């Protein structure tokens, strides 16, 4: 009986009735949903540089490392792999990680 009820509801559903505008609005909003994550990593890199830490690396490099450190990919990557990906040494990745943990007050993604 429940299956027939669900089928009756689905039978009434017509995808042609959905407005196309909703799909384009979502597509236009997508970059704004991604932008805050990028800005956070850059802001952390700026704060580290302002504090006189990680000044041997560019702001973009520090931000790239922070993005990797605080992403789900971190669980499968060593500091050496992260360093190879952004073209810096694993010791620099370790320093950036240490300073980021001190600044943000929490561990990186495990």
- Portion of residues within helices: 55-70%
The ordered string of helix (H) and strand (E) elements is HHHHH
Largest sheet: none
**Low-pLDDT residue spans:** none
Number of helices: 5
Which percent band covers the strand fraction?
Answer: under 5%
What's the number of extended β-strand segments? Answer: 0
Terminal Cα span: 47 Å
The chain-level structural class is: mainly alpha
Cα gyration radius (Å):
22 Å
Overall pLDDT:
79
Q: Outline, from the CA principal axes?
A: elongated
Plain-language structure description:
- The structure is a single chain.
- By secondary structure, the protein is mainly alpha-helical.
- It has a domain at 39-110.
- It is built from five helices and no strands.
- It has helices at 2-12, 20-50, 59-69, 79-86, 90-104.
- The longest helix has 31 residues, at 20-50.
- The radius of gyration is 22 Å and the shape is elongated.
- It starts with a helix and ends in a 6-residue tail after the last helix.
């Amino acid at each position: 009986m429940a299956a027939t009820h669900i089928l009756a509801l689905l039978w009434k559903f017509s995808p042609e009735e959905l407005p196309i505008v909703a799909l384009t609005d979502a597509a236009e909003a997508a970059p704004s949903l991604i932008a805050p994550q990028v800005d956070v990593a850059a802001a952390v890199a700026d704060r580290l540089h302002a504090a006189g830490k990680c000044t041997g690396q560019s702001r973009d490099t520090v931000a790239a490392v922070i993005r990797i450190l605080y992403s789900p990919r971190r669980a499968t990557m060593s500091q050496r792999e992260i360093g190879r990906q952004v073209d810096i040494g694993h010791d620099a990745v370790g320093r950036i990680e240490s300073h980021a943990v001190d600044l943000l007050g929490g561990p990186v993604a495990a």
